[in-house]
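Table 4 source record.
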Amino acid sequence: MTTESPRWFTSSYSDNGGQCVEVATNLAAARGVVPVRDSKRADSPVIGFAAAAFAAFVDGVKAV
């Protein structure tokens, strides 16, 4: 079991006035989940997406 903490980051493409989310992809391999939260509030609730679902979402965005 890993006790690794999320390493939050915002996309380098997110220069839109702070209306962004942060993701912690460092947990995908160990836990199979990608946590996502509001970038404006570090204490906001975290939504966990299955790593495969998040990867499919990113692939879809890149294809647009």
